[in-house]
Amino acid sequence: MKAFVFDAYGTLFDVFSVTSLCEDLFPGYGKQLSNLWRKKQLEYSWLRSLMSRYRDFWGVTEDALVYSAKSLNLDITASERAQLMDSYLHLATFPDVKPGLEELKKIGMRLAILSNGEPEMLRAATESADLTNFIDAIFSVDSVKEFKPSPRVYDQLPSGLKINKQEIGFVSANNWDVSGASSAGFATFWIQRSGFETPEELGHPPTHCVNAITDLCRFISPE
Amino acid sequence: MKAFVFDAYGTLFDVFSVTSLCEDLFPGYGKQLSNLWRKKQLEYSWLRSLMSRYRDFWGVTEDALVYSAKSLNLDITASERAQLMDSYLHLATFPDVKPGLEELKKIGMRLAILSNGEPEMLRAATESADLTNFIDAIFSVDSVKEFKPSPRVYDQLPSGLKINKQEIGFVSANNWDVSGASSAGFATFWIQRSGFETPEELGHPPTHCVNAITDLCRFISPE
What we know:
The structure is a homodimer. By secondary structure, chain A is of the alpha/beta class. Chain A is built from 9 helices and 6 strands; from the N terminus they run βαααααβαβααβαββ. The first copy, chain A, has 2 domains: 3-13 and 91-219, HAD superfamily/HAD-like (Rossmann fold, 3-Layer(aba) Sandwich); 15-87, DNA polymerase, domain 1, CATH 1.10.150. Helices cover 41% and strands 12% of the residues of chain A. The longest helix of chain A has 21 residues, at 30-50.
C-alpha cells in the first residue's frame, strides 16, 4: 500500500456540522433539516447520474436544500440559503482526522481525496480545515461527470496517482461508497466511528473495517 | 395519445399494503419496517445500477428487507422473510386504479406497465390484483439490466408498443420516476394522490399533474 485515498463528506468532513446553523435559522428544525438535506443530496447525485443529467455537487447540494426547506414548510430567504451553502465550505473535521493523517504522512504514505464534491468546494473545505499540508492530490467526480458509486469515478485513481490499483487503499465512512470502490477492484477500509452500523446488502463488502483514521497505520508494515 | 404506460409499485400497487403484515410479525415496528424496506429497495436499485452490478428487483427487494430488519434489530426467520416477500406478489391496488383503467380502456387506449419489477413478480401482482384484462403489455427494466430512472428503461417503450414516442403518456406517482421519463422525452403525468407533495428538484418536471388515474381520460380528446 503506497497511498490512501479518502472520501471527503462524512469521512473527513462532518456534514452534520451544518446542523447548528440549521437550528439557529430554523429553531426546532435543525436536525430534521440537516438530515433531509443530506438524504436528498445523495439521492439527487444518484438519480442525476442514472438519468445522465449530471449537475455538479454544489448545484445538487443547493437543489437538495431547496427541496428540504420546501418539504418542511420552512420559508428560506436567499440570504439564509447562501449562509447554509457557505457552511459547506467550512465543515468541521472528525476528531481522528488530523492525528490520523499526520501519522500516515509520517510513515511516507501518499494521501489523496476522492469526492463527489466539485473541485472548488473541495479546495475550500480542505483549506478551511487546515488539511492542505496532508493532502497530496484532490480527485473529483467532476472529471467524469458521474457520481459515486460509478466505477468510472474510482477508476481515475491509478492514472491520477501514477501507481498501481493494488497499491491504493480507499477509505470511506459511507458503506455504499466502500461497496462501490470494492466493486471497482480496490482494497477498501470502512470507517465505523459510531461502533456498530448495519452493513449495506450490496455485495462487495469492505476489505477491512476500522473505527477511526488513526487505526489505518497498523495496516502498513514498517519498511 | 394512443397509450398510457403506468409505473407499478406506488402507482398501481400500494407498496405499503405490506405494513399490516410487518406489524403482525413485528408488533410496534410495522410502519418503521415497511418505510425503511421501501427506502432501501429504491436506494439499492439506484446504487446497483450506478455500480453496474444489476440484480433483479426480487433480489434487491429481499436485500432491502434483510438490511431493514437487521438495522431495526428485528430477528427475522426464513419463514417470516418468505411471508413478507410473498406479500409483494399480492399487493393491494389504490382505489382509483380499476375505475381509471376501465375508463381508459373503454375509450380505446392501449395500457401497459413499465416497472423496476422483474417480469415474474409483475405478472403475479397483476393477476392477483385482477388487472390482467386491462393491461396489454408489461415492460420490465430486466430487459436492459438497469433500473429507473435510466433513459434506457423508458426508451424501450416506442419499439415495444410499436408506436411513436409522442403517442405515449407515462404515468407515475413517484416524482423521480416522472423526471426520468420527462428527461427521456416522454409526456408525463404525475399522480399526487395525497394532494400536495413537494416536487423533486431534479429538473424535467411532469408535463401534467393529476390526483388520480380517473383524471387521465380528460386528456384524451373524443374522436
